[in-house]
Amino acid sequence: MDVPLGNRGDSGVDNVVDWEGEGDRTHPFNWPKRKKALIIGCLFLMSIVSPFTSSVIAPALPNIMIDYKTSNQYLSSFVLSVYVLGYAAGPLLISPLSELYGRVPLYHICNVVFTICTWRCAYSTSLRDLAILRFFAGVGSSSVFALVPSSIADMVVKEKRGAAFAVIAIAYNLGPALSPTAGSYINAAWGWKWIFHVTAIMGGAVTLLAIPLLWETYEPVLLRRKAQKQSKSTGNPHLRSRLDVEVGSNKLKILSRAMVMPLRMLLAPSIVLICFITAVGYGWLYILYSTLPVTFLTTYGWAPKKIGLAYLGAAVGNLIGMVAGGGISDAIVKRKAAKSDHRPENRLLPMIFMWPLVGVGLIIYGWTAHYAVHWIGPMIGTAIFGAGAMSAIFFTGTYIVDAYPLHSASGMAASSVLRSLIGGLAPLFATKLYQKLNVGWAFSLLAFISLAFAPIPWVCYRYGEKWRRKERVGERTDVEDRETGAAEPAGAELDSLPRTNEVGRAEV
User: Where is this region: Disordered (predicted)?
Assistant: First the structure.
């Protein structure tokens, strides 16, 4: 047993349960590689299905509009984007609950909600019903954006998180890359309702797979369970986990604090600025996705069945941005750590140079499409844009989980809310943008807006640490101070409590 038992009452320091030193095999950092690989593999599959469903109906929208007897382009765009609005709403509930009950119960509940709502979409009797079901399917699938990065951070040491995040980021991008092509072929062969049947089957398969493969990774929940187990075996009702001692164990207080945490984080400069620029890139991505069929059908005369191939340029760029970003990010963190620089802001360094690719790619896409240059021209533009936009999402995610280890789910929720709101609403004004401006100037306008925000990553890198020290987005603990290298732990008043050795950062 890691903590000696004494007779000092329920507030006695001898009743604090902690990890058993550096080699504690029950800490997620020290789990066997095979166990981690199975968990990450399951999260990988979940992370494919969710974004796959977001855009798989895009090629079938004309048929859906015909069946529901409407030609309203705004309704058409809304049916597509309402799923992404679910991404914005879901994390506001999912993330706080995960900080009370852990990641795994929320994964299972959300998987079931996603599967049922997606299946019911095929039987919707009106466009309103379809939009409502799509929204709740998006809420259910938002767990992969709200919780997966946090689950990775729970298991993987900081110096290697970039590579692990890159694996999940590939999954995030495989979905949008494959779904338009898959959707167009399913629609042509069996009709648009079978698109929902297929995605529901995928969701059901992942739901069943997750039951045996997912293990709880959240440190406060694991320590709480450990304390409860030891309390039963020893008959000592006063045992409490170290983190419950530091931040409290009252469930109502934890939940109420966690519920407002994402919104409070959105008011923190270190979070809101970098999340805003990421949200802009995400919004432009959905505008691009909503206009690709028009460009390649009308300008280049592609057959409807092949229109899904128009998305491959962006998919390749997304993949390059994620893989390269993961390697560069980890290399920078390791090099800085060797110089005793452990600031989470080091994750933002590559973003300073990669964000301008967003503007460059949009300009290339807009003007090559405007002048009907060979179709490879717009493809190159979307690839360059994808590399810049998706790498920004990647760097933002790794920064948040490094800067706020115990509240990473709330941080990712804050990022997801802002990103999904802009991503969900942006396509709604894409049609107006096209009507007022030609494709060249429309995407040039988006490019100029993107380039105007180019200094933000440098500003956050330069001043982020100073801002974080002044922020009160939550009760910090010594866990966060160790992770972020903060000079003055906010839990200093508890330093008088004798603790067992803090868990070490074993190799992954």
Answer: 472-508
